[in-house]
Specification:
4 helices, mainly beta, 287 residues, 11% helix
């Protein structure tokens, strides 16, 4: 993915423009060093008769010295009584993961961590010794219940997470990278192909900061379709999803700002559903 230095510099510039909400013409004069977007967090929500599921995304520079230069995307999700916190540490130029951590809580609690080493992926699972609420302690202190090394798919080391496709699959990013991404779920790997799927107009209505929801405004939306195919033999049951959606996934991006306005796909028990952007918090510039 990074064969030529000039191509790498271009990619960084384009992703920086995408996340900052700039258009293609502005991308041509973007700085070579990536900068964080104008938004600090996004809130996605899916409503149905049965339940409401929501995810909040927070993007910033990684703070720890050992991951300097990387970005951290934290995704906190809730659906009914279940919740999950996913933390992704990745190269902003390519989307390649350095590490990821998933904490989940339903009837039980557990934490999984994947570390992307040069020759292999180290996967650890931790469970609390006492899974009775407050007595569980911090996940980092839980005993390791499972540890194993996973091999990379043949010839593929730039592995990313399906949730990051919300950024990487955008029209501006595609123009400089090609249409395929290698996704790891838990034990399985998938090749995800993106392709343009036309455009449409819709009445977008999301909150900016603490303001009340703005009046719905008609927006032109560029549609991107994602299709996942198993890469090699599956090591576990088929489990590809993106924010809980599977099948034919469509992402709609605002053609002016680059913001993801919705995702469409299939959800277990619910069938065809749509996840919408409900809120965007602007990034506060350091004083």
């Amino acid at each position: 993915m990074r064969q030529l230095l000039t191509r790498l510099v271009t990619r960084i510039s384009v992703l920086s423009c995408l996340l900052a909400g700039t258009g293609p013409a502005q991308a041509q004069i973007a700085p070579a060093v990536p900068s964080l977007p104008a938004w600090e967090s996004l809130q996605l929500e899916q409503e149905s008769v049965w339940l409401t599921a929501s995810s909040q995304l927070q993007l910033d520079n990684c703070e720890a010295p050992q991951v300097a230069g990387l970005w951290c995307l934290k995704i906190s999700s809730r659906a009914g009584s279940s919740r999950e916190v996913l933390t992704l540490r990745f190269d902003p130029a390519s989307g390649a993961l350095h590490s990821r951590t998933r904490f989940s809580q339903g009837k039980q609690q557990r934490q999984k961590h994947w570390q992307y080493e040069e020759q292999y992926i180290l996967r650890e699972r931790r469970n609390p010794a006492d899974d009775s609420g407050e007595n569980a302690g911090k996940p980092a202190d839980w005993p390791v219940s499972s540890r194993r090394q996973l091999s990379y798919p043949s010839g593929e080391h730039a592995i990313t997470d399906s949730q990051l496709l919300l950024l990487l699959a955008s029209p501006s990013w595609q123009a400089y990278t090609g249409g395929d991404f290698i996704i790891q779920t838990d034990l399985n790997f998938y090749r995800v192909t993106r392709r343009p799927a036309g455009s449409e107009t819709l009445a977008a209505n999301y909150r900016i900061g603490d303001a009340r929801p703005a009046a719905a405004s008609e927006r032109r939306v560029m549609l991107i379709e994602l299709q996942a195919q198993a890469l090699g033999e599956l090591q576990d049951k088929a489990d590809f999803s993106m924010f809980g959606l599977s099948g034919r996934i469509i992402i709609g991006y605002d053609s002016d700002t680059g913001l993801p306005l919705f995702l469409r796909g299939e959800a277990p028990l619910l069938g065809a559903v749509e996840i919408k952007l409900r809120a965007m918090s602007p990034r506060v510039s350091p004083s």
